[in-house]
Amino acid sequence: MESGLISVDRWRKGSQAYFLTHLHSDHTRGLSGEWSQGPLYCSRTTASLFPSRFPGFDLSLLRVVPLSSWRSLSLRSPSSGSSVRLHFMAIDAHHCPGSVMFMFRGDFGCFLYTGDFRWDCEGEDGARTTLVSAIKEFPVDILYLDNTYCNPIYSFPSRQVAAHLVADIIASHPCHDIIIGIDSLGKEDMLLLVSRLLNIKIWVWPERLRTMHLLGYQDIFTTDTSLTRVRAVPRYSFSIQTLEGLNMMCPTIGIMPSGLPWLKRPSNGVGDGKLLSGSLLTASTLPCRKQLPAGVHQFHDYMYSVHYSDHSCYEEIGEFVNLVKPKSMKGIVVSSACYVEPLYYFGRICRVSQPPELLLLRPDTAEQFRAVRIKSFSGNDETIDKEREKRLKRDGYSSFKRNKKRSRIQVKRAKISEID
DNA sequence: GCGATCAGCT
DNA sequence: CACAGCTGATCGC
């Protein structure tokens, strides 16, 4: 697509319409209450959170996009001046409340931008139905894919299984206070399931309660500590030290539902990092520290982590790509630990064969993963090179060490690529 | 002094 | 390594 038309999760000047997939801060960096650059398209749920997230935001610039239905708008080509018709549709991305993928089509072709997404939806699912019928009518030319865990070493349970694991840990500590680390948006489904399974309310901090109410959860959450022994607290607000302090007053354990990768190592030993054992334990049989179920890790007497991710695991990414069968695709996350262009693993699924240079050899060691990552990173992101040039001009060339450090950071910062 | 960006931590 | 996102330091106006 020509540049100067639209931006997705990017907020630089020069686009005629801006699309926001979800409200996590790494996708909203640059948005503020002073926004005036143009219309901003998002889901209804995201829109409902806008006033509290960005006080002062001119709500007349928000455009609510209903799920699963085509909308269109007219843009002006910056080069030719002619009118460009853009059709777009939002599809539930199952990442966090309000998160959507966007499908765009027009004379330029058909693009699907997933934003962050998790493809572990079970049972009747509107997103899948919508997607299947949309791609049947409009085959996808380019898939912009959430490739956070696009590597077979990333394998972890569905969120439903993970939520059961959290409930199991709580039930096996009937006399403990429990604190669960969460962020400002996300993991609500886990808390709901825990609440339902254990028939308890869950404490959240006041701002988070307001968010819960905006999301339509009225009765499950409370800010009254006397009503429940389970508290969901800001993830950054507790540590082993906090827990040790709390345990001087009352027996307390912490549970960290973490997106941090649990690597599935190449299988050549016994029980090595395997995650999907399917052995869901009942509350009464949760084993001692040495024999925890797959997906649970106890790294301190008071601290558990449960592998809970709002991004698709490798297997789910594969299923998704196989369903969409795009002509080509591109990863939108360039900083994950074992980043590999999705084409490396899933290129063969695409309808047109891919240029072979990315597919040289399968990386099996950390070093080789790094090599593939760097190759694809430096090979195709002009924007980042320009940024680096600008930065170097500004800062001057200082010591080798400093430059080296900076370039590492740029890889980290340059997280989301764009499609404008 | 203030907002934006960077660095570090979990 | 790194999810998402905080705090505190520094930069630029």
UniProtKB/TrEMBL annotation:
Gene Ontology annotations for the cellular component aspect, listed alphabetically: chromosome, telomeric region; nucleus
Family annotation (SUPFAM superfamilies): Metallo-hydrolase/oxidoreductase
Main location: nucleus
Biased composition (Basic residues): 401-414
Ranges where the record places region Disordered: 395-420
EC number, as in UniProt: 3.5.2.6
MF annotations from Gene Ontology: 5'-3' DNA exonuclease activity; beta-lactamase activity; damaged DNA binding; endonuclease activity
Similarity section: Belongs to the DNA repair metallo-beta-lactamase (DRMBL) family.
Protein name: 5' exonuclease Apollo
